[in-house]
Every structure is written in structure tokens, then in C-alpha cells.
# Entry
Amino acid sequence: MNFLSLFVLVPVLMMVGLFLSKNLRQIRLVMVTGASLLLALSAGLVFAYLGERAAGNTAEMLFTARCSWYAPLNIHYSVGVDGISVAMLLLSSIIVFTGVFASWKMEFLEKEFFLWFSLLSTGVFGFFISIDLFTMFMYYEIALIPMYLLIGIWGSGRKEYSAMKLTLMLMAGSALLLLGILGIYFLSGESSMDLLEIARGHIPEQAQHWLFPLVFVGFGVLGALFPFHTWSPDGHASAPTAVSMLHAGVLMKLGGYGCFRVAIYLMPEAAHDLSWIFIILTGISVIYGAYSAIVQTDLKYINAYSSVSHCGLVLFAILMLNQTAMNGAILQMLSHGLMTALFFALIGMIYGRTHTRDIREMGGLMKVMPFLGVCYVIAGLASLGLPGLSGFVAEMTVFVGAFLHEDTFHRVFTILACTSIVITAVYILRVVGKILHGPVTDRHHLALSDANWYERTSTIVLILAIAGIGLYPLWLSDMINDSLLPVIQNVNL
Amino acid sequence: MEYTLFIVLLPFLSFLFLGLVGKRLTPRAAGYTGTIVLAISACLSYITAWHYFTTAKVDGIFEKLTPVNFTWLNFTEKLHIDLGILLDPIAVMMLVVITTVSLMVHLYSIGYMHGERGFQRYYAFLSLFTFSMLGLVVATNIFQMYIFWELVGVSSYLLIGFYYTKPEAVAASKKAFIVTRFADLGFLIGILLLSFYTGTFDFERLTSGDTALFAGMEGISFMGCSVISWAVALIFMGGAGKSAMFPLHVWLPDAMEGPTPVSALIHAATMVVAGVYLVARLFPVYYLEAPDVLVLVAVVGAVTSLYAAVVACVQTDIKRVLAFSTISQIGFMMVGLGVSGMEGHEGLGYMASMFHLFTHAMFKALLFLGAGAIIHAVHSNEMTRMGGLRKYLPITHLTFLVACLAIAGIPPFSGFFSKDEILAATFHFSPVLGMVMSFTAGLTAFYMFRLYYRVFWNKANHHDHVPHEAPGSMTVPLILLAAVTLVAGFIPFGKFVTSDSTEYIIHLDWAVASASVAIALIAIGIATLFYRGESTIPDRLATSFRGLHAAAFNRFYLDDLYIFITKKVIFNGISRPVAWFDRHVVDGTMNGFATLSRRVSYSIRGFQSGQLQQYVMVILLGTLLITVLVLFV
# Structure
């Protein structure tokens, strides 16, 4: 059996294990074992992948396996990875691992919570290893549905409203997507669902022109494309900690990855012709998200709008259609995934203590919980692009790459997008100044405790990953660069 | 010269060590760790300087050496960020300046910060800052400089906000970061423009004088200025932000909320001259490709210098006076660069500017550390709470006097030589500018001696306790820096640091020198008259020029402009409407769709009523309708 399939198998086995476990202890054991296994698997995959490449294997996708599961439509269970999916798998396993620790103290229905959590992970991992459009779409749906229950049942605040809104908007996106995929299947002339086969052929340009928007918007909804991003603030605010982490950390990346892998890769001509529309939209996302974040008072809303801005930059960079910018987009996905997960984890931990997320009701927490405070500052600094942390590497690659575009239009928009680095600093420092610094405003907060061992595990792993990318980005960026070549060739034709 | 790597790396290791395990150490151990590591770094810098200035000269020109360089991140074939070490005269000089002042500050802080909460954290941040600043000056390419540029910004933010429970400190740190971030945006866009057309980040290629590199930028202009001018002007904007040039200087006076040794290190001697260093680093690009921007540099420098000197004359907080004096002196350095040429004796301004950077770092650090000793003694920053301190703080008094004489430009103290050369170069460039700068130099002497007399002379104003001299760890750095200030003027600076790396023989321009000394002496005389004893003249002057005094006291209301832009424009003017728009228009539309579909389903669900008669009725009518349609249409 192909070892990529283990990425799907392990979460499924976790669900079986959960089903059989009798108490919280066993549930935790299953989750920690499974999550560690996934982390080890993805780390192993990185080494295996780099080893293969170093040995001179230049195939587009490595470790491929394929078996037919619906012959009339040529649907295959077909898996394989390149440097980009390897990176995304690594990201996902880190988030799943830290998410388990962040939800150590689940209040009720633990078993069910983790069951849905594992199902969601199955979908995410399956999505990143698939190279068959239909299988990919199926996993995409598997990742979306559990979200409804996870937010609706375990959430807080207006959870039913948010869960419904999120699910409906994302489902509307899926509908467009399905239409697009069917269109690609029938119009490409290949009668194939295989990404690589379709890419080798050519979709007629007229068909591309209406398929590209369908697919791009379909995935773009999940990637918080303006104006379809409004599920994100409500959804994140209502979701429980681990779900916010997974959702902002990984699920939103499905959108960016899908746009890149399906929309740009398969329909390069339309991407050239129509990119200006989406560059305007994503450019708005970048600036507009950042400005909206400035006035929010709920920590999760601030972070959700910040995600709109940062994810906007991902799609923005993909649309620049050159290698450096796309590399930046992938790096930005990784970087944003890690730091936003760290943010949501920390917000959850702070909320668990103060029982409020309103920044006006907090102050001076640095003195009370120095560990969490320092982690929050580090997350903030990563978010505002401090060198030495992942955000800087990603943003600079995006800006330099986007600025290399020969059209003045694109460069002007790049400069506009650059201004977000100032606005980001404003909202990050505002929050840090309000909740962490200054005198302690609520004297009940004086008695609060600092992080526990499981909370420390969760945050330290994330910080190590963020600093790892930030300090030594070369291996990662080179790994991604290699894998971008086929896409770039397609785009440049 | 690979060992230079350790100069940069050691403070970083010290930062990691103190940051991770600092809490387990006693404050004393943490302080000594930081100080000893920095002492090693400083020794290595001195060895480097000796080694470099004695061996790197080939055919009368100092070579650029790159002992370390590796690729950190690849963008394209041509564009990649390297990290490395570039040694040339200005970089080596900066290494010496930074490690010296930083070492003095480390030593001084053991006494000054004694008993403070977060002592270990303080030393960790100091190490982080020193690492970043050293990385900045040895940068081999402009992107490396930008990386460390951001890192010094963050260290500065962390250190200004060191007393994080104090709301003023928090506000000041935020302001410092955001204002400099805004300036850095210009820097970044400038880098993007420059690298887009030249295809390189590398300093050596950019400053090689190779005009072919900039050929791609010719003929492209935007709003009447060529694109190369835009690029380097934007890069200068970054420098202006860090170096607190008008109107981006608003953060520096507030940054005085940080601990005083930090002000000495970051906000007087090292970080704030990064902008000057940046312009000096890219000087050939400015001079050869965009001379118009160089004029801008000179004008901005002169305006800043004059403005800050005027404001400094009426401030009452000892650290703010020094802060404005720093701004003013950096203005001098900028003017020096702005009026300079490249070759031979045309390069006087450049050499003088670097010389002034060197001497200013020493005497300004001395002034701040002295101010720290004063604040330590009287527990206040306000000059009104001081007076008559010369009896109580003899060492501080004498060293402070040395620094005051140096900054006022009295021979043979170091400031006289460097400032005089800047004035000479300025007169050579434009007599009007020269007169403005001479007037500013006079103001400098006046406000410094106003400060000196109000602190050390006059009537004692501290009723509650008897001030006492600072401990040895604080006075030793003062004495050392005073000694440097006494002799630094005689360093044959032109032998080492010049615009074209060839030797430059300094001739004092006696006409300019005697005039400026005369102006300084007159200014000191006026200050003596006003402030040495009780005098009503200053108060009467303040009342007769009430408007001017109030405006200067409030820094000509530029801080209100900052508040207006952040609070009114960004917060209330843009962000609030945007957030409202998002919630009510964009999200409202989405909710509108949901409401619409619910309305529709409410209205059509009546059809599914469950009443058989109604169903039969509909079926019959439907059949009839279809029959009619089929038959007649």
C-alpha cells in the first residue's frame, strides 16, 4: 500500500479508537497517539521527499498511487505529492497536533467532539494528497461538513447562526466548484479527472473564461475572498479553540491551495485575462481586512479580520502568476496557518481564564500570565512581519515577487498591498498595549494562573515552527520553488 | 577576518541565553553575563579595527572585505537575500562605536537598574538590540539591512516599553514603532523600486559607481521626478524615520519613557544614526544618480536641526532637552552628507558627517548617562526639581561639563572638530545654509548651558533628601566616555573614513572655526547670564513672546498632528466606516439573501397545506390549463 494513504488511514483509525474508548483518558491517549503519528509521518515525508529529489527524481508528483473507483466517469483514487503538498501536509499535522493539546480540557461530549475533529482532519489530509479532481472535491466536502456541528454544538455566542452562515456560504462555494469541475471534465476533451492529465491537455480558451471564475470563486470563498469573507469573523468567533485553529490554520488554506492547483494550473489563459478582476478584489481584502481589524474589540474578531487580510495576500500573490510571488503565496499560507493557529490557541487560553474576549475588559495580563503574554507578543510580531519569524519571509517573498510583474497595474497594487504592513502594526500593537501592558484593570484577574503543561506544549510547538521557518527559510522555499516549475511552464505558454 | 562573525553572533547568543533561562539566574549573574559577552564583542571590534585599518589598504584605498556571506533566501536568479559581513571604513567605525557605547551602557546599567523588576529581561533586550544594530552596520546588501533595521525597531519598542505597567511607556513604545514602521514602508518600496530596475540588492554592486546598472531607470519618471530619485528618496524616508528627521521625529522625545541607559544607547548614540548610516552607505547612488535627493537630505537635515534646537531651548524635562538636542545633531550629520561631494576634498561633508556621528555618539551617550546619574540622585526628570547639584555629584558634574563643552563646539573637545568641518562644508555648498547651521550651533550652546546651569548651579531645590553620587559602576563609564570626548577630536579621522576611501588631510578653516567658537561663547555667555543665578529675564522673555514660547514648548503642535492622523483619520475616519460597511453592507447582503429565501419559502409553503380539496382543485385547474394550452396555442 502507498504510504501517503496512511495520512487518511490514521485519522480513520483514530475515529475507530475513539469509538471504542471508554473514558477521557483513553480518548486523550488515542488523540495524542494519532496526532503524534501524523506529525511523525509528515516529518518523515519531508525527508523522504527531499531524499527522492536529491536522488534526481524529477517527476512532477512523487509517491503516486492510483486505483479506479468509478470507471464510467474515470474517477480514480489517485494520490501523489509535490513540494507544495508536502509543506501543506506538514502544516496540517502540526496544527492537528497542537489542536489536540489546546482542547485538552474539553467540557462536554468529548468523544463526539474528537470524532468530528478527526473526520475533519481526514478531509484535510485527503485533500492535500489527492491529484484527482473528484476525490479532491470529496475530501473538501468531508472537511467542511463537520465544521457545522463543531461550531453549532461546541461553540460559543451566536453559535447556531454562525455555524449556519459558515456552512451555507461555503456550500454555495462548493456548488460553484462542482459546476466548475464538471465543466473541466466535459470540456477539456480528456474525459479525465486527473489533474496531471488535464494539465497536459488544453481546455479551450472560451471554456476557460467561464470555468475559471467558477473555480476561483468557489475556492476563494474558503480563502476569504472579498466580498465572500463574511462567514469568517462570525465563524471564528463562535468556534471552539481547536476548531478555530484548524479552520483558520488549515481549512482556509484549502481555498488558496485549490485556487492555485486547479484554477491557475489548469486554466492559465483565463488566469492571465481575468486576473485583474481578482487582483482588485484580493487587494481590497488585504487593505480592508487590516483596517477593519483596527476597530474590533473582540480578540477573535480582530484575528479573523487579520486572517482576511493575510489570506487575501495569498490569493493576491497567486494571481501575479510568477514563480517568486507564487512561492510567497505558499509560504504565506504556511506562515499564516501557524501564526493564526497560535493566536487562536492563545485567545482560547486567555478566554478560559478571564471569561471575556473583549479587549476593553482586560489589561496588564503580562504581569499575571507572563508565559501566555510573551507568546502573544511573539505571535503578534510574527503577524506584523518581524524578521526571524515566518511572516517576514512570506510577506517579503510576496512583495518582491509581485513587484517583478511587468505591468504597472500590478506593481501599483503591490505597493498598495505593502501598506498593510503599517496597518497590521497598528492593530497588533493596539491589542498588545491594551490587554497585556498597562496596569491590571480587573482585580479578579490578579488571581489567574499561567499556562499549564499541555498549553505550553501546544504554544511552544507552534512557536518553534514559526521561528524555524523565519530563521532558516531556504530549504522550504527551495522545495516549493522546484514544484512550481510545472505551473509556471503552463502559465508562460 | 572571519572572526568578525562572532562580534555579531555573541550578543545574539547572549540574548537567547538570557531570554530563555534568564529567570533562573540571579539579576547579578544576568547582568554580568551580558556585560562580559559584550566586552568580548567590543575587544573583537577593536582588534578588527586595528587589523582592518592597518592591512586593508591597497594602493591608498581601503578595500571592501566580505569575510562572511551566504544566501538566506532566494527570490529569483538575480535577487536573493544574503546574510553576511561587509567591512569597509564606515562599517568598522560603526562596530567600534556600537560596541563601545553598548559596553558602557551594559556596565552602567548594573548600577542604574539595580533592584528593578525584570532586570534579566532588560539585559536580554539590550543584547538583542546590540546584535541587531551590529547586523545592520555590517550588512552586505540592502535587504539584510532592512531585516536588521526592523529588528532594531522591535528592540527599541521592547526597551521603550520596558516599564510596561506605565501607560505613558506603553503609548510611547507604540508610537515609536508605528511612526518608524510608516517610514519603513517607504524604505521597503524604495528597495522594491531599486531592485526591480537594477536587479540586485548588493551594496558593493550598487555603490560601485557603475552607471550601467541604473540604465533601466533612465527616462522613466513619475510626477516630474525620475524613478531613481523616487527610489532613493523613499529609502531616505526610511532613514528619516529611524533618525527622527522632521516631520517623522515625533516618536523620539516620547521614547524617553524608556530607562535612561537605553535612551543613551538606542536613542542617542546608535539606532537613531542608522538613517545617516544608510545614506552614507548608499552615498555613491545618491551622489551620482540622484543629486536632487541629496539636496533634499540637506534641507530636511537643516530644517530638523533648527526646529529641534528651538524646541530644546524651552523644554523643562532634562531627557527631552537631550532628545531634541539629539534630533538637532543628527540634522547636522544629514546636512553634512547632503552638501558633500565625492572625490578628494569635495568629500569634506561626508567625512565630517561620519566624524560627527562618531564624536556625537560618545558625548551624547555621556550626556544621557550623566542625566541618568542626576535622575538617580533626585528621582525626577524635571529640571525644576534640580539645581545646585555640583556639590553633591562632583564626578557627574565634571563629566557632564565636558560633554556640554563638546556639544557646544568649544576647542579642544571633540565636538568642535567634527561640527566645525560640517559647517565648513556647508558654507562651501551654500552660505545661506551655512548661516542657518551656525545659528543652530549657537542655539545648541545656549540650550545645553541652560540645562547645565539649571541642574548644577542655581538654588538647590530638593528639600526632602540629600542627593548622593552614583556608584562606581555608573561613574566609571562616565569617566571613560569623558576621556574619549577629550581626545577624540585629535583622531586623524580623514585618514580612515572618507567618501572615496582615500586619505584626506584635514585643514581647519579658521574663518569658520573662529566665527563658530565666538558664536558658541556668546551663547554660553547669555546662558550664564540667564540661568547661573536667579534671573527674571527668561520669564520676562517667555511672557513677551508668549505665542512663540507656547508653540515651541508644545513642539509646534506636531504631536497633535500625529494624534489627529492616528485617532481621527485612521481610527475614526477609515477603520470605523470600513468595519461598519463590512457588517452592514457586505454581510447585510449575505444576510439579505438568507432572509429573502426564508420569505420565499414561507410564502410558498402554503401550497403544501395537506387539504385534499385544495390539491384536487389545483390538479383540475392545472389539467384544464394544459388542455387549453395544447388545443389553442
User: Anything to note?
Assistant: Residues 323-354 of chain A form the longest helix (32 residues). The longest strand of chain A covers residues 62-70. Chain A has 20 helices and two strands.
